[in-house]
Design brief:
Layout: H1 2-5, H2 14-28, H3 31-39, H4 46-68, E1 74-76, H5 80-90, H6 96-115, H7 118-125, H8 128-149, E2 153-154, E3 162-163, H9 169-186, H10 192-207, H11 238-243, H12 246-274, H13 286-303, E4 308-310, H14 314-319, H15 325-345, H16 354-365, H17 376-391, H18 395-412, H19 421-436
Antiparallel strand pairs: 1-4, 2-3
Helix pairs in contact: 2-15, 3-4, 4-13, 4-15, 5-6, 6-12, 6-13, 8-12, 8-16, 8-17, 8-18, 9-10, 9-16, 10-16, 12-13, 12-18, 12-19, 17-18, 18-19
Length: 437
């Protein structure tokens, strides 16, 4: 085991890897309930969605562990699944198979971009300062997710955001998870993030946040598999409809841009916590990570669960000591088991994972010291990424705002020649993306 995953060489151990995998799984487990809740609006059977969500996440996370050997986990991406539900009704004639065909096509195209080296080349063209900015933005974003899930941050009355009800059970569970996690982490207690989640789950029992499971075993339902190749009402295959509809091709481009840069940001964030980010801000051995992530996107469309992508919650496992693919394999196995025991897994509320996400956000914010804020050509684009990711609740949108700002500031400060050609292309692509998304 050690000779394959090399976790010993990376300063980890078998026990630490397994624990980190469990931490990542618990931080991501909410997707088992949330993905069906969103996609069921497109007319897909909820039971089949829960099963396929678990299997898709499990299979692709295990592939990530085996082929990339890094502590990254995959599951159906939030945001994209909401878009799938939306286009099913508005652009796909109510046929969710066609929407999954869009996802499948996007995944295949992004895989081709990886295989021809374009995705890596664009990552290499990003200035080091902007790479630090992505980590900072992801830190704020992760913390925001955790705080919102616990109801600590809510939509305000007359304001965009506000403080939640301090007497709310979910608020209390979230605060408990933060206090326990930070207290243990400050004492360097191994597994502090995992312990924080478990304590919060237990605290949620008397408060009514942790619900009793509705059962133990759930039957497998694979009826969503093969969605892009299902026949539509007029007898044609769903994927054929996508390829012959210009508007659906535009949607596929929008999804491609989102997947493309979401994964880039997530990989850098996890690499920082997992100690495989180089001094110049490059992710070590990024190619197999991008290949698996691209295959996962197409696999998500095939399985009927929306695009499967690398989850930013993977940072929780990396922060808990995960350094190799064994962490991912552990997470993946747990997802596959969850396909059979999803009623039990669903007792872990999103509020219980608040502490882990907030603490990881804090760790990632330390990147802010690497940025020269006195230089507007570096500081302002950095600010736009950091603010954009969290304020728009979109990794790709925040990165796009920062890229465009970088090019504009460079032009007006006489540094246009320092911009690499692919950065020009990326900024232009984001302009198009913002107008067609």
């Amino acid at each position: 085991m050690e000779s394959f995953f090399k976790y010993g060489e990376r300063g980890s151990s078998f026990g630490t890897e397994v624990r980190a995998g469990l931490t990542t799984f618990l931080a991501m487990a909410y997707i088992i309930a949330v993905n069906p809740a969103i996609l069921s609006g497109a007319g897909i059977d909820g039971g089949a969605l829960a099963c396929a969500t678990c299997l898709g996440a499990g299979i692709m996370t295990i592939c990530m562990g085996i082929f990339a050997n890094r502590p990254l986990a995959c599951a159906s991406g939030l945001g994209i699944n909401a878009m799938v539900a939306g286009i099913t009704a508005t652009m796909c004639g109510g046929d969710w198979h066609v929407a999954m065909g869009v996802i499948f096509l996007e995944g295949v195209v992004i895989l081709l971009l990886v295989l021809c080296g374009l995705r890596e080349a664009i990552m290499d063209a990003i200035p080091v300062t902007l790479r630090h900015a992505i980590s900072v933005g992801l830190g704020l974003f992760i913390a925001l997710i955790g705080l919102a899930d616990a109801g600590i941050i809510v939509a305000g009355n007359g304001t965009l955001v506000g403080l939640g009800d301090v007497t709310s059970p979910t608020f209390i569970v979230g605060i408990v998870s933060i206090i326990v996690t930070v207290a243990l982490a400050s004492r360097n207690v191994p597994g502090s993030l995992l312990i924080g989640i478990i304590v919060a789950v237990l605290a949620g029992i008397p408060l009514g946040v942790t619900q009793a499971p509705t059962g133990i075993v759930a039957p497998l339902n694979l009826s969503t598999f093969g969605a892009p190749f299902a026949a539509t009402a007029d007898g044609s295959l769903a994927i054929v409809k996508v390829l012959t509809d210009p508007m659906l091709l535009v949607v596929a481009f929008s999804l491609l841009m989102s997947d493309f840069f979401d994964t880039m940001g997530t990989a850098m964030a996890v690499a920082k916590q997992g100690e495989f980010l180089t001094e110049d801000g490059n992710v070590e051995d990024i190619r197999p990570i991008l290949i698996v992530d691209s295959v996962a996107a197409a696999a998500g469309g095939f399985m009927g669960v929306s695009s499967i992508t690398t989850f930013v919650e993977s940072t929780s496992g990396a922060a808990d000591g995960g350094r190799s693919g064994l962490t991912s394999v552990t997470t993946g196995v747990l997802f596959i088991l969850a396909a059979f025991f999803s009623p039990i897994v669903s007792v872990v509320s999103s509020a219980a994972t608040c502490g882990a996400l907030v603490y990881v956000g804090y760790l990632m914010m330390t990147e802010v010291t690497e940025i020269d804020w006195t230089d507007v050509s570096q500081g302002f684009p950095t600010f736009m990424i950091a603010a954009g990711v969290s304020f728009t609740y979109s990794i790709s949108a925040g990165i796009g705002l920062g890229f465009i700002a970088y090019v504009i500031v460079a032009i007006f400060t006489g540094k246009a020649r320092e911009i690499k050609p692919l950065m020009w292309i990326a900024a232009l692509a984001f302009l198009v993306y913002f107008f067609v998304a």
